[in-house]
Give the backbone structure.
Amino acid sequence: MLAIGDGASAREHLRMTVLKDNSQNPVGAKLLESARKMADTWDEYREAKQGKKWEVASRALDDLISQCEGGETIELFVARTELAVISRDWETALRYVYDLVLPWLVLTNLVFSLARKAEQASPEALYTAAWVFFLTFNAPEALECMHSIQALDPQHQKTLILHSRLNLLCKRLLDLQTEQNSNGTTTQEYSEQLDLLIDFLGDREEDGRGGALRSTLLTVRAERSIQVLSHPEDFDPTR
């Protein structure tokens, strides 16, 4: 339990079964102290996360990882991934989730398909992967993870919400692309569709300020604003 970062469970197990007499069990006493330290570090991480003190949370997480022996619980995987998203370190976040899902997913013709039974996976871990895929707009992978979760728990609420958001995101991206293909990027309609899409993705710190796609769309909007200022005659506010 300690090796994978589950200090609380290790602490309770040691307290109940190993350390009936600490003075006669020095090895058990040392293990219990390690378990207590790990559980306290988890409490520190959760408190920092609750208060959005991300640097403190990151230090606590680094401390937790240093106390482990190479493995990790689902909670530790989720914590590492959440902090990568908050930092908008999409490369690291994707590496974490690919490391998790590749045992369950097989790459075939650039589309991910389920390779093992869904019950082998954790819904919480797969949801975290789906969430990162959503934020980076890797839609096929996000859908595959969500389908795997729903095979385990058809009423998994966070997955149902994320699935709905992905459907709406795809629709709004299609609307934006349709307007661009039909009338270009100089119309008022295109500007409104772009604003709508950026607002939809949101600006929550916990979601990496709306994800990698929002960052790209903000760049598109900024470049368009520069073009409007430089060549206002090219833009038709009536369309």
